[in-house]
Amino acid sequence: MRKGDVVAVLRGRDAGKRGKVLEVYPAELRAVVDGVNIVKRHVRPNRENPQGGVVERPGKIHLSNLMIVCPSCDRPSRVRHSRAQDGTRTRICARCGKSID
């Protein structure tokens, strides 16, 4: 999973929602997805937010609860990897066989 991928949520309270990956944390096996797993954080006043208070923002979600949505078939699918003759790797949709990259 990479930053900018569109993913579908498989489990949890946001199951069925789709969103764009904003950040990926490979060491933690988690990602931040836009509009999914919204959490409230109490923020002190600072330059960006002079008022302070409670701020809602997307929280991290485990990668096992996400699946990449193929842009061509528009369905959540597993991803296969193939290596071209020149050595570049491409991600391929396991459902339709078309390139995701």
Please tell me about this protein's structure:
The chain has 101 residues and is mainly β. It is 0% helix and 44% strand. It folds into two domains: 6-69, Roll (SH3 type barrels); 72-101, no CATH class. The chain has strands at 6-9, 18-25, 30-33, 38-43, 53-58, 60-62, 66-68, 79-83, 89-93.
Structure characteristics:
single chain; 101 residues; mainly beta; SH3 type barrels; 2 domains; 5-stranded antiparallel β-sheet; 9 strands; 0% helix
CATH classification class of the largest domain: Mainly Beta
The residue ranges in which pLDDT falls below 50 over 5 or more consecutive positions are: none
Global structural class: mainly beta
Helix count, DSSP H or I runs of 4 or more residues:
0
So what's the overall shape? elongated
How many beta-strand segments? 9
CATH fold description of the largest domain: SH3 type barrels
- Using only C-alpha atoms, the radius of gyration works out to 17 Å
**Order of secondary-structure elements:** EEEEEEEEE
* Main pleated-sheet profile: 5 strands, antiparallel
**Helix proportion range:** under 10%
- Strand order across the largest sheet: 6-3-2-1-7
Assembly annotation? single chain
Overall mean confidence score, pLDDT: 93
Q: What is the CA–CA distance across the termini?
A: 11 Å
Q: Which CATH architecture of the largest domain?
A: Roll
Strand content: 35-45%
Tally of discrete structural domains = 2
